[in-house]
Each structure stands twice: as structure tokens, then as C-alpha cells.
Specification:
Blueprint: H1 12-28, H2 35-48, E1 52-56, H3 59-70, E2 76-80, H4 86-93, E3 97-101, H5 111-117, E4 122-128, H6 138-148, E5 151-155, E6 163-164, E7 167-168, E8 175-179, E9 192-196, H7 199-208, H8 232-243, H9 245-263, E10 269-271, E11 278-279, E12 285-289, H10 295-306, H11 323-326, H12 337-345, E13 346-349, H13 357-371
Parallel strand pairs: 2-3, 2-4, 4-5, 5-8
Antiparallel strand pairs: 1-9, 6-7, 6-11, 8-9, 10-12, 12-13
Helix pairs in contact: 1-8, 2-8, 3-4, 3-7, 9-13, 10-13
């Protein structure tokens, strides 16, 4: 068997429908900021339980637009060190400064570390829902932010449709940022979405995504925006995938349940649990290897001897150790021990919407052999 790390899925009937829609888009001449983008926004806002949504050209853009709208220039924003480059980079591109903090054992941001990191320059916190599960720490961090007068932004790039206490990712903070990159649970090819209940932030996001223009048809620029628009073709693709999101997540949860059962009997690997009050979309199925296990060797043997490719980590190197951030004299190795340990030891098992039960069991059988 050959098991890929991930697999993008467009059912044949969806591809046929999309071909017709793209033909209509091209014939209309309305290639951006049209009816498909508007419908995508309306449906996504309703889905997340937020008042507004704004589609943009990437999850990275979504974060930067939110931060520019919140005015982080010359202020500090607290960010977990075990996140993708785009999270801290968006702060810097928006004119702010980054302060990294350590993780909790479940991969998510440590609330105590957040509290210690706050000083007079701090304006807000970005909480990342790692691997698709809504961080249960969101409750405590939200309370800290409320008490200290700070904003809370959710980097929900992984968390489409995930919940905590019945509440959807993207609805806990002042705004949420989603990614529709090809590897995600649903994709628009390239694209992102902002969710918010804040009307002022929503209005500002509409201006910033379209070169800072007060209106699409005019040429009066009221803000220092950029070309962060989502095309109509990307919006149509996103809508097609969004209609499948429920079944995609259900399939991933079925595979995750198999992994939960099978890994319980395998030494030297422990799943990172999902909070019982939440439901993950299982963008990633994360587990920790025992101390002393060589992750690179495990991945190589799984791939070469068993045809099993593990998904990319979240993330293999914490941001504070990335050369681009170290060059600025940032914290060095040993400063965030929990994140460094988790980044070094975790693996992500393959999971995708079309994965079969026997393929999931083949993965765990291969793991059992390799780890033995």
C-alpha cells in the first residue's frame, strides 16, 4: 500500500459544476468581488456564527488585514512560538513587534506564559488552533485579554468547522483568520477568510483588501491597503468545497477514531488528546513519540519500507529558532522548553477525506513494526 500524507478531493460532479461556473464567470467579465465571493462570505459567516466574513487571497492576508485594522503599529503582539511563519510575520508586516511564548503539553499556547509576557507595550494576543482542534486555553486567554484590555485574534487557519463547547472556531476573539490553502480541510486553491462581529473591523477589512479604496467602483483611497482580493474563480472553488465540509470532517473524524483505538496498543507513541468539550476537524492527527525516538528515522522507515508518508509537522522548528527571527537577536534555544520538546517529538499521521479504514489500520500496523 502507498499512503500519501494528504490528498485533495474534488468529486467528479463538483468538477463538472465548477467548469460551468468558471465558464459563466469568464463570460460575465466579473472576475473579482462578485456574486460568488459575496455568497462565500455570507455562508461562511453564518457557519461560524459571526456577523461578518471577508474573503481574501490567503490566510496570511487575513491575519495582516486584521492586525492593520486593529492598529498594531509600534505595539507588541503575543504569539506562540510553535506556529507557522505567517503568524508572527503578519504582525511584523502590520508594523508591530512579536513576543513569543511557550506552549502547553497539548501543543497550544500556555495561558500562564501569556500572562507573564504582557507589558505596557502589549496590544493583543494571537491564539493559534494547532492541527485543527480549538485550543481549550481560549477560555482562559480570552479572560486574560478582557481583564488587561487586549484584543484576542484567532489564527484558525487549521480549524474550519472545529468547535469548543458547541462554539465554532473563528467566533471566540475579535476576529478569526482562516486559510484555504490546498492542504487544508477545504480549499479554494489559494484564499483566506476573516470572521468578526466587529462592524468597524469589517468595514476596514473591506477597504484594506482592495488597495485601500472606499468602494470597488471608485478611486478614492482612504487607507493604505493592498491587493488582497479573492478572485471569483477562487470563490467558486471555495464554495464548492465548503458545501462538502461537513462530510470531509466526518470522514476525518472516522479515521481519527481508528487511530485513537489502534495507538492505544502501541508503545512509544501517544496521541495528543482533543478536549472532551470540543470537536476537531482533524486537519492533522498529532501524536508524540517517546523520548529517544528519532523522528526522521521513523518517517524514513515508514516511507521506504511501508509506503506511508507522514504529514508535515506543526511545526518541526519553533519560530524563535528560525533564522529570520534569530537574526534580530531574539530568544535562543532553551528559552521555550515545552514548545521545543513538542516540536522535536511530535508526528502527524496521514488523514484525508477519501482515506479508507483499512488504510488507517495499515498506517498503525506499519507504525507498530517501525517503533518496535
Amino acid at each position: 500500500m502507498n499512503i500519501p500524507a494528504a490528498k485533495i478531493y474534488f468529486p467528479p460532479e463538483d468538477r463538472r459544476d465548477l467548469a460551468q461556473q468558471i465558464e459563466g464567470i469568464l463570460a460575465s467579465g466579473q472576475l473579482t468581488l462578485g456574486k460568488y465571493g459575496k455568497e462565500f462570505e455570507e455562508r461562511f459567516a453564518e457557519f461560524t456564527g459571526t456577523a461578518h466574513a471577508v474573503c481574501v487571497n490567503s490566510g496570511t492576508s487575513a491575519l495582516e488585514i486584521i492586525l492593520r485594522s486593529l492598529g498594531v503599529k509600534d505595539a507588541t503582539v503575543i504569539v506562540p512560538t510553535n506556529t507557522f511563519f505567517a503568524t508572527p510575520a503578519s504582525v511584523i508586516h502590520a508594523g508591530g513587534r512579536v513576543r513569543f511564548v511557550d506552549a502547553s503539553p497539548n501543543l497550544d499556547m500556555d495561558p500562564a506564559a501569556v500572562d507573564r509576557a504582557i507589558d505596557r507595550t502589549t496590544k493583543g494576543v494571537i491564539l493559534v488552533h494547532i492541527g485543527g482542534a480549538v485550543a481549550p486555553q481560549v477560555r482562559e486567554i480570552r479572560e486574560i485579554c478582557g481583564d488587561r484590555g487586549l484584543f484576542l485574534v484567532e489564527d484558525a487557519a487549521h480549524a474550519h468547522g472545529s468547535t469548543l463547547g458547541g462554539r465554532k472556531a473563528g467566533s471566540f476573539g475579535v476576529a478569526g483568520a482562516f486559510s484555504f490553502y490546498p492542504t487544508k480541510v477545504m480549499t479554494s486553491g489559494e484564499g483566506g477568510m476573516i470572521t468578526t462581529d466587529d462592524k468597524k473591523l469589517y468595514d476596514q477589512a473591506l477597504v484594506l483588501r482592495d488597495q485601500g479604496k472606499a468602494g470597488f467602483l471608485g478611486n478614492i483611497h482612504t487607507g493604505m491597503g493592498y491587493n488582497w482580493r479573492m478572485s471569483e474563480i477562487h470563490a467558486a472553488i471555495g464554495l464548492s468545497q465548503f458545501r462538502r465540509l461537513g462530510e470531509f470532517i466526518a470522514a476525518r473524524r472516522r479515521i481519527a477514531a481508528i487511530y485513537d483505538r489502534e495507538l492505544a496498543g502501541i508503545p512509544d507513541i501517544t496521541p495528543i488528546p482533543v478536549d472532551p468539550s470540543g470537536e476537531s476537524n482533524y486537519y492533522k492527527y498529532c501524536a508524540l513519540l517517546a523520548d529517544g525516538k528519532d523522528r526522521a528515522a521513523v518517517k524514513q522507515e515508514l516511507r521506504e519500507k511501508h509506503g506511508v508518508s507522514l504529514s508535515g509537522e506543526v511545526y518541526e522548528l519553533p519560530c524563535h529558532l528560525q533564522p529570520v527571527f534569530k537574526e534580530g537577536g531574539g530568544p535562543g534555544e532553551g528559552q521555550f522548553p515545552v514548545a521545543e520538546d513538542l516540536c522535536r517529538r511530535h508526528v502527524c499521521l496521514p488523514v484525508y477525506a477519501t482515506m479508507k479504514d483499512e488504510e488507517a489500520r495499515y498506517v498503525t500496523d506499519a507504525l507498530r513494526k517501525v517503533l518496535a
